[in-house]
Design goal:
Rossmann fold; 436 residues; alpha/beta; seven-stranded parallel sheet
C-alpha cells in the first residue's frame, strides 16, 4: 500500500493508488490518438522521463514552462520569448501533445528547448527533474499534475501557475473537493491571476494571499493595428477603385468550407446592399487558387489582393481575396462585420480579440476551443456573437451591417481590455522574481 504523504494529505495517497488504474484504462485511446496524429516516435522516451543528455542537457538554473493545448502553447511561446529578452537563464517548453510540440518547433525553439512532459508517474517525474534540475516549474493556465507537484516539492523546485484560469464549472468541482485538494494548492509558490475577483477562488483553495499576483490575462493583451497600416490599406482600395464600396464584411483566417458559406452570405446580402464588398483572408494563403475557383463557381467575381489593378477601368469584384500576410488586423479596422475562421467546421478558432480592439464585434461558430475562456468573456460582455450553425452566419452578418455599434463596442472593449495591459511583461517579471 502506498505510504501517505502527510505534507499533501490523504489525496496524495489516493491519487498514487488510483492513477495507475486510470492510466492503463485510458492508455489504448491515448496511444491510438498518437498513432493517428503521427510523429509519435519522435522523443517518445521523454514521455517516460527518459532524456538524452546529448540532445537535452541538464539546465541547473532554468525554468520548465508547461503548456498543453494549442491556446496554452501560444501563451507559453509568448512568455518564453519575453523571458529570454530579460534573462540568460534557460527556459524549456514542455508539452504532452504532438500539436504543442509542432507549435514550439514552428516558433523556432530548438529540440533541446522543447520536450515532452512525462506521464504522471512519480518515477517518471523524478527522472525528469533529476535530469534537468530546474529552479522553477510553471504551468500555463492549469494546475500541475499531482505526482509532478509532489516530486517537485520534494526536490525544492518552485511551482507556479501563470495566466491562471479556472472555469466556473471547474471551480465548483475544486471547491467541492477543497478538503482534499487544498494541500496541493497550498504547495504553489506563485499564481498569476487575471482579475482581483479570481483571487477569492485561489485563496479559498488554500493558496496564501502573498503568493497570488495580479498579472492580467495575456490573451486579452492585443494592440490595435498601426494607423499607418490602416491608411495603407485604404490606399489599396482607392487605387483599385474600391474606395466607395460599402459595407465591407471579412472572413479572417478561414478554413475549407467557410469560404463557401461567406460567398453564399454575400449573394444573399447583395440585393439589400448593392455596394457590398466581401474580403476573405484564408489561414493558409496557398489555398488562394482553390478559393478563387470556389468564388467563380458560386458566380462571384474575385480579385486577389496581391494582383489588384491600379485602375478601375474594369468590372469590380464581389470578393477581394487577401493573399498577403501581416495585414489582417488592419483589414478588421476597415470592415463593418467580421467573421472569425476555423470556428464552424474546423476545431480551435482564431483570436477573437483582434477585431474587438478596433471596435468590431466578431462573429464565430461553436468551435472556439483554443480561445474558449476569451470567447466566453467576450460573449458575456456583448462583444462577440456566437452562432451554432452555418445558417446563423447570414443573420449575424446582416445584423452587424444594419446595426453598427462601433463606438459602443470600442468603449466596452476598452473597459474589458485595459486591466490586461502589459500582462506578458507582468507575467515575465513574476517568473524572473522566482529565479532571482
Amino acid at each position: 500500500m502506498a505510504r501517505v504523504d502527510h505534507s499533501l494529505g490523504l489525496a496524495a495517497a489516493f491519487y498514487r493508488i488510483a492513477f495507475p488504474f486510470l492510466f492503463f484504462t485510458l492508455a489504448p485511446g491515448w496511444l491510438a490518438k498518437m498513432f493517428q496524429r503521427g510523429g509519435w516516435q519522435e522523443k517518445f522516451g521523454e514521455r517516460l522521463g527518459l532524456y538524452d543528455s546529448t540532445t537535452v542537457p541538464a539546465r541547473h538554473d532554468g525554468v520548465l514552462l508547461h503548456a498543453v493545448s494549442v491556446g496554452e502553447m501560444l501563451l507559453g511561446i509568448r512568455i518564453a520569448k519575453s523571458f529570454k529578452t530579460f534573462s540568460t537563464k534557460s527556459l524549456t517548453l514542455t508539452t504532452t501533445t504532438t500539436t504543442g510540440m509542432a507549435q514550439a518547433a514552428a516558433a523556432g525553439f530548438y529540440p533541446s528547448d522543447r520536450i515532452y512532459l512525462p506521464v504522471d508517474f512519480a518515477t517518471c517525474q523524478r527522472r525528469m527533474f533529476r535530469h534537468l534540475q530546474p529552479q522553477v516549474f510553471a504551468t500555463v493556465e492549469s494546475m500541475p499534475w499531482p505526482n509532478l507537484l509532489r516530486e517537485a516539492r520534494k526536490l525544492g523546485i518552485r511551482l507556479a501557475v501563470l495566466n491562471a484560469r479556472v472555469s466556473p464549472r471547474s471551480q465548483r468541482r475544486y471547491l467541492a473537493l477543497r478538503r482534499f485538494l487544498s494541500p496541493y494548492f497550498a504547495a504553489l509558490d506563485a499564481v498569476g491571476i487575471s482579475t482581483l475577483e479570481d483571487a477569492v477562488f485561489w485563496q479559498t483553495m488554500g493558496v496564501p494571499k502573498d503568493k497570488i499576483h495580479l498579472t492580467g490575462n495575456i490573451k486579452f493583451e492585443v494592440s490595435p493595428p498601426p494607423l499607418e497600416l490602416i491608411e495603407s490599406l485604404r490606399q489599396v482600395l482607392a487605387a483599385a477603385g474600391l474606395a466607395n464600396r460599402h459595407p465591407i464584411i471579412i472572413g479572417g483566417s478561414t478554413f475549407p468550407g467557410e469560404e463557401q458559406i461567406l460567398l453564399m452570405a454575400h449573394k444573399k446580402l447583395r440585393p439589400a446592399h448593392p455596394n457590398l464588398l466581401t474580403l476573405i483572408a484564408p489561414r493558409h494563403v496557398e489555398r488562394a487558387p482553390e478559393i478563387c475557383a470556389e468564388a467563380r463557381k458560386a458566380g462571384c467575381a474575385i480579385w486577389r489582393r496581391s494582383a489588384c489593378p491600379s485602375t478601375s477601368n474594369r468590372s469590380q469584384p464581389d470578393v477581394l481575396l487577401i493573399d498577403t500576410t501581416g495585414e489582417l488586423r488592419g483589414w478588421y479596422a476597415l470592415a463593418d462585420a467580421v467573421f472569425i475562421g476555423k470556428s464552424l467546421h474546423a476545431r480551435g478558432g482564431q483570436n477573437p480579440v483582434e477585431p474587438v480592439v478596433v471596435g468590431r464585434r466578431p462573429i464565430f461558430g461553436p468551435h472556439m476551443e483554443n480561445f474558449s475562456s476569451v470567447a466566453t468573456d467576450l460573449i458575456n460582455a456583448k462583444l462577440a456573437i456566437q452562432i451554432s450553425s452555418e445558417a446563423g452566419v447570414f443573420d449575424a452578418l446582416d445584423h452587424e451591417i444594419r446595426s453598427p455599434q462601433n463606438e459602443v463596442v470600442a468603449a466596452r472593449a476598452s473597459a474589458l481590455l485595459t486591466p490586461h495591459k502589459n500582462a506578458t511583461l507582468k507575467t515575465t517579471r513574476l517568473l524572473l522574481d522566482m529565479i532571482s
